[in-house]
């Protein structure tokens, strides 16, 4: 290295396995969304359909870099996140644990009235943005990850909630 030359860090990219084979594609999730309406009841949990769509959109916002994560949460997530993500990603649709804890920034607040059509449109906008991701992204919690892994995690998370509402 020459004097005055900058050292560029190469990000350590999380390595994740393939998503569970029963996880639908983004196109299949869009089709499943057509089977959901404002009054579709969940098989478990307390969210309404509009709240679930808001939650899934906020989950995508996290992957799109729109949600700030405190430093302490980033440190813990970068240490414990990869094994959790590996385990989560490979679970089949019905095997993902129900009623898991959710970080406050992506929870849908039950005290806020949500319009189903507005939440549906927001969800579809975010899904299109996620679909466009390429290369390596910088996840607010987990650090550098392949865009295809981020897409797989979004697909798996969305599938879990669409299963909750009986549309996949």
Description of the molecule:
- The protein is mostly helical.
- It has a domain at 46-94 and 114-168.
- Helix content is 45%, strand content 5%.
- It has a two-stranded antiparallel sheet.
- Helix 1 runs parallel beside helix 5, helix 2 runs parallel beside helix 4 and helix 2 (49-63) runs antiparallel to helix 5.
- The longest helix has 19 residues, at 71-89.
- The protein is globular, with a radius of gyration of 17 Å.
Layout of helices and strands:
Blueprint: H1 26-33, H2 49-63, H3 71-89, H4 116-131, E1 136-139, E2 143-146, H5 147-164
Antiparallel strand pairs: 1-2
Helix pairs in contact: 1-5, 2-4, 2-5
How would you describe this structure in keywords?
mainly alpha
Concise summary:
This protein is mostly helical.
Number of strands: 2
How are the strands of the largest sheet arranged? 1-2
Name the shape in a single word. Answer: globular
Structural class assignment = mainly alpha
């Amino acid at each position: 290295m020459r004097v005055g030359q900058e050292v560029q860090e190469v990000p350590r990219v999380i390595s994740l396995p393939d998503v569970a084979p029963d996880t639908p594609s983004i196109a299949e999730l869009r089709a499943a969304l057509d089977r959901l309406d404002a009054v579709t009841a969940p098989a478990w949990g307390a969210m309404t359909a509009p709240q679930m769509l808001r939650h899934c959109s906020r989950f995508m916002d996290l992957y799109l870099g729109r949600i700030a994560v405190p430093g302490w949460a980033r440190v813990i997530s970068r240490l414990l996140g990869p094994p959790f993500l590996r385990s989560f990603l490979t679970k089949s649709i019905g095997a993902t644990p129900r009623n898991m804890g959710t970080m406050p920034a992506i929870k849908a607040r039950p005290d806020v009235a949500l319009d189903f059509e507005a939440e549906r449109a927001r969800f579809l906008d975010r899904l299109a943005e996620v679909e466009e991701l390429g290369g390596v992204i910088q996840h607010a919690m987990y650090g550098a990850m392949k865009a295809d892994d981020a897409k797989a995690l979004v697909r798996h998370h969305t599938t879990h909630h669409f299963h909750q509402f009986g549309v996949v």
